[in-house]
Amino acid sequence: MIIAIPRETVPGERRVALVTESVKRLVGKKHEVVVESGAGLGAECSDEELRAAGARIESSAAAVYGAADVLLKVQPPTPEEVSLLKSGSVLVSLAYPLANPKLARAIAGRQVTLLAMDMVPRTTLAQMMDVLSSQATIAGYRAVLLAAEALPKLFPMLMTAAGTIPPAKVLVLGAGVAGLQAIATARRLGAVVEAYDVRKVVKEQVESLGARFVNIEIEDAAGSGGYAKELSEEAKKKQAEALAVHVAKSDAVITTAQVPGRRAPLLLPADMVRRMKSGSVVVDIAAEQGGNCELTRPGERYRTEFGVTVIGEKNLPSQLAVHASAMYSRNLEKLLAHVTDKDGALKLDASDEIVKGMLITRGGDIIHPAVADVALKEVA
Ligand code: NAD
């Protein structure tokens, strides 16, 4: 099987779908790996290293796309990249097909089979292929470092001859994968951490990381698959009132809250941010999904006129491209192992739970029922 890795072309994307170690292992399993020259540079994998690991380096994107039996990518393909896809090949990539059914349709139109990495089911069996989790882990860690860097204060408590410095107070909103990593990172830096989530089941996990869980007496919004449901209007109001007190006394607020298929919930309205001390920081990991903070400017970092720095930088995993790529690459390797037979040939069994969840297009059609449904609604 020829596995092809193009260079990512979305501005600011430094990750690569396969790192050198994975290339070595896949070549060891008798696959041929073709890589576009420079594809690994952002993740510190040079052409020379990749070649030494057994990859063939091609200088043009067209040659890489044209060689692929299976094309592995990070970012959803751009229109130019879609036009390069080879008929009959398989694309494995982030694709967000429920939010972007047009892309799924364009890929189907190229007679390309799409496996969307963001649709891997959140089950125990699929955990090793779960790029949403691996990349959210990186984002949670990075968000805390951004907060620590922007905050004009120390995170840890220090008792020195020059006086005692109190620890920074960090509030994490949303205690899913990114939020739990943010809590752990802020604790390692010595901050006092509080966290809140609408799913009460995470209370124990929050506490086991040494943070305090903020209890708000509203409905439990645990939905299916470990995700949250949207709150009722009344619950949203009650939540906002209770959170305002905790936000006002925090030096840094890290927001990570998301609800699948919807705009990120608004947790920090402008007036709540206004009540924070001058010098405080908000890092909004949900910036790309519309943001949890009303003042977030997606893709930007700025200081408000009342002195709070709001950080809405996008694609935090790309800022730590070496390990983000290593984890993404490992997730892809596990997926490839799951969908190939002992001779290394691709076998996409649509009745397999993992394949069923992420198989979006095949034979020129959108075959994933939920994606087909949104695609149809979009046309209507
Ligand atoms: P996510 O990115 O969709 O959401 C992040 C967090 O925001 C969630 O914890 C959610 O409850 C929370 N949230 C939503 N609305 C909120 C609001 N109004 N206020 C406060 N918080 C709000 O979720 P995720 O981090 O990708 O995953 C969530 C959970 O799914 C995990 O904690 C885990 O339990 C489960 N999961 C399971 C597996 C597995 O079994 N393989 C893998 C990944 C995740």
From TrEMBL:
Keywords: NAD, NADP, Nucleotide-binding, Oxidoreductase, Translocase. Belongs to the AlaDH/PNT family. The transhydrogenation between NADH and NADP is coupled to respiration and ATP hydrolysis and functions as a proton pump across the membrane. It comes from the Bacteria. SMART domains: AlaDh_PNT_C, AlaDh_PNT_N. Residues 4-139 form the Alanine dehydrogenase/pyridine nucleotide transhydrogenase N-terminal domain. Pfam families: AlaDh_PNT_C, AlaDh_PNT_N. It catalyses: NAD(+) + NADPH + H(+)(in) = NADH + NADP(+) + H(+)(out). This is proton-translocating NAD(P)(+) transhydrogenase. NCBIfam families: PRK09424.1. InterPro entries: Ala_DH/PNT_CS2, AlaDH/PNT_N, AlaDH/PNT_NAD(H)-bd, NAD(P)-bd_dom_sf. Residues 148-312 form the Alanine dehydrogenase/pyridine nucleotide transhydrogenase NAD(H)-binding domain. Its EC number is 7.1.1.1. The keyword Oxidoreductase applies. It is an enzyme of class 7 (translocase). GO terms for molecular function: oxidoreductase activity.
